[in-house]
Specification:
The structure holds two protein chains of two kinds. Chain A is mostly helical. Chain A is built from ten helices and no strands. Chain A has two domains: 1-37; 40-262, MetI-like fold (Orthogonal Bundle). Helix content of chain A is 83%, strand content 0%. In chain A, helix 2 packs antiparallel against helix 8 and helix 3 packs antiparallel against helix 5. The longest helix of chain A is centred in the N-terminal third of the chain and has 46 residues, at 40-85. Chain A is globular and about 75 Å long. In chain A, 37% of the residues are buried. By secondary structure, chain B is of the alpha/beta class. Chain B folds into two domains: 33-118 and 213-333, D-Maltodextrin-Binding Protein, domain 2; 121-208, 3-Layer(aba) Sandwich (D-Maltodextrin-Binding Protein, domain 2). In chain B, 42% of the residues lie in helices and 16% in strands. In chain B, the strands form three sheets. In chain B, strands 7-6-8-5-9 form a five-stranded mixed β-sheet, covered by helices on one side. The chains are: A mainly alpha, B alpha/beta.
């Protein structure tokens, strides 16, 4: 009980200290620098005045992030299974996957806009590219790191290749997979916002937080920019929370990392 | 290892040399009296739209006015106004409406002179695009900088709706998509496209009735502390523009070509001709417009318009965003 009180009180306290520090810094700014940092209550007011715009933009980002992350997860797992089958496939695919991750989004965005049009299609693809790599690398690592003894046991019982993958390697790779998914869950909303920033569109109310950043930036609205950043954080939190719940659901019954929190 | 250390030593020496030159500009300028070092931040890569500043620098007008002016090139995403507001550079440029928005948000920026009486910003369309007037934009999608104040103006004035997508700062998409409408500088992109065989037409935004200045701006505290420097900079810049537009533009064009590979002689001639013919910089003398001149009534009317559009949350008095006292007397006297 005492533990859980601390757990909820601690972040509230640290947030209070943070906001107090924010007020102190703002109060100490000379007049000509004051535009750089809005008061925390200015940010709250920006939220109150623009909540519909921010909510719509957040939902658009969440949609782009969800499409990107889900498709990245599916393709990455299939790709990881393929790569776990042979060292040759791994060696021939891995550098290209790495190249995919290295692609600078800002350079890619104009190309994507020409190919698939601005807005949700481009935003989802950019999110896909950003989310794909951590999952594929971790899952592949998991699939090829299965306990030797268990693999031998499966061989002893004449399990087929398919059975070995579905019954042994995939379950054993789950913790690795979720490690990748957690990283991608954090990256998904960031990816969608970056995508929206460079390849977004206001058509069909499709403008996301990246688009808002451009608008508020052009109008020098600092409080609104802060509100946009905080909205982005909130979406990120929601994604991370979902990934953690799914991960807990799949692993808590057997994996060591959940033992303590369960008891 | 020894080689690495030597390289490091050389780099450090170069760096230190660079720093000391920054802090003692008099060393760099061998001739006569000490010059005051100031920086002008451009809003784009060097191009003829900055011609007068380069002319003033190369022909020594700034030095004659006691200034050692460094001209910093800009580019996509290199937003100059926050730099001025933060006091990183004393001088830059932009549209008068943007300065009003900035000032309304508390950014300490001041309009000190007109750079252009009319903004050369236009909408760029393929020649066969059915859109012929601003009213035809209804239901279309325009690639422009979202947040620009002319967007709500066009929507309200013509009773239309259109969507926006962020500018990609290139022409590849425009060439690929015959439907695309994007913002451009009338002095620049049309020439480049026609050279590539793309037939285009333009709608000059100021023809819609939305008519901001392009302006020279400064950091308000800087102007307060160095009024003479600001006055000298404005006067020498106006002299540079006068000389660039009506004298021999070669000095500026050589400087620009050396800094920007894309600027061919033909491109620069086109831009300069456009600026001359459409009188972007000098304005219409019958309306009392001249290089650098600012009409307080016109500024005020524009601020009122922005307030009516809801872009400015409250009426903005001119003292918040402009100070016309730095203009040469013959320019400011005529306006009051």
């Amino acid at each position: 009980m005492k533990g859980s009180t601390t757990r909820y009180l601690a972040p509230v306290l640290s947030a209070a200290v943070f906001i107090g520090g924010w007020y102190a810094i703002r109060a100490g700014l000379p007049t000509e620098k004051q535009f750089m940092l809005p008061w925390p209550h200015d940010v709250a007011q920006a939220f109150a005045e623009n909540w519909q715009t921010l909510l719509q933009a957040s939902l658009n980002i969440a949609l782009g992030a969800a499409i990107g992350l889900c498709s990245a997860t599916m393709v990455a797992v299939l790709m990881a299974i393929l790569m776990s089958l042979s060292g040759f496939i791994r060696a021939s695919l891995y550098p290209h996957l790495m190249a995919l991750q290295m692609m600078p989004v800002v350079a890619l965005a104009p190309i994507l806009v020409i190919w698939v049009g601005p807005g949700l299609p481009s935003v989802s693809i950019i999110t896909f590219i950003i989310c794909f790599f951590p999952i594929v690398v971790n899952t592949t690592q998991g699939l090829i790191s299965t306990d030797r003894k268990l693999v031998e046991l499966f061989a002893l019982y004449r399990a087929s290749r398919w059975q070995q993958i579905t019954r042994l390697r995939l379950p054993a790779a789950m913790p690795y997979f979720f490690t990748g998914l957690r990283i991608s869950g954090i990256l998904a909303s960031i990816g969608a916002i970056v995508g929206d920033f460079s390849a977004g569109s206001s058509a069909n109310d499709g403008a996301g937080l990246g688009f808002l950043v451009i608008i508020y930036g052009a109008q020098f609205k600092m409080a609104e920019l802060f509100a946009t950043v905080i909205s982005g954080c909130l979406i990120g939190f929601v994604f991370v929370l979902i990934v953690h719940r799914v991960s807990w659901f799949c692993l808590h019954q057997w994996h060591d990392s959940y033992e303590r929190s369960d008891s | 290892m020894a080689r690495f250390l030597r390289t490091l030593g050389l780099l450090t020496a170069a760096l230190l040399a660079g720093c000391s030159r920054e802090s003692h500009p008099a060393v760099a300028a061998p001739s006569g009296p000490e010059l005051t070092p100031v920086t002008l931040q451009l809003d784009w890569f060097p191009e003829p739209a900055h011609g007068g500043f380069y002319q003033a620098a190369v022909r020594g007008f700034y030095a004659e006015a006691g200034l050692d002016v460094t001209i910093n090139p800009g580019g996509p995403g290199g937003r100059p106004i926050p730099k001025v507001a933060a006091g990183q550079v004393p001088f830059s440029m932009g549209r008068s409406d943007d300065m009003m928005l900035a000032a309304a948000q508390g950014l300490p920026v001041l309009i000190i002179a007109a750079l252009m009486q009319r903004d050369p910003q236009a909408l760029l369309l393929h020649a066969d695009n059915p859109v012929e007037t601003f009213a035809d934009l209804d239901g279309r999608e325009v690639m422009a900088y979202p947040g620009s104040a002319w967007v709500p103006y066009l929507k309200k004035r013509y009773g239309i709706e259109f969507d926006l997508m962020p500018a990609s700062f290139g022409l590849a998409r425009f060439i690929a998509d015959p439907e695309l409408i994007q913002a451009c500088f009338i002095t620049d992109e049309p020439f480049r496209l026609r050279k590539q065989g793309v037939a285009v037409k333009t709608l000059l935004l100021s023809d819609s009735g939305y008519d901001p200045y392009r302006v020279i701006v400064t950091h308000a505290p800087f102007a307060q502390e160095n009024p003479e420097v600001v006055r000298a900079f404005v006067a020498a810049s106006i002299r540079g523009w006068q000389d660039y537009l009506f004298g021999d533009p070669a000095p500026a064009h050589q400087a620009i070509a050396a800094l920007n590979d894309h600027m061919t002689e033909a491109q620069m001639d086109y831009s300069l001709t456009q600026m001359r013919e459409q009188k972007f910089v000098q304005g219409f003398s019958e309306r009392g417009e001249r290089i650098g001149h600012l009409d307080p009534g016109r500024l005020d009317a524009h601020a009122t318009l922005l307030h009516e559009l809801g872009v400015l949350p409250e009426p903005l008095p001119m003292s918040r965003y402009a100070d016309l006292s730095f203009l040469p007397t013959e320019l400011s006297a005529g306006s009051f």
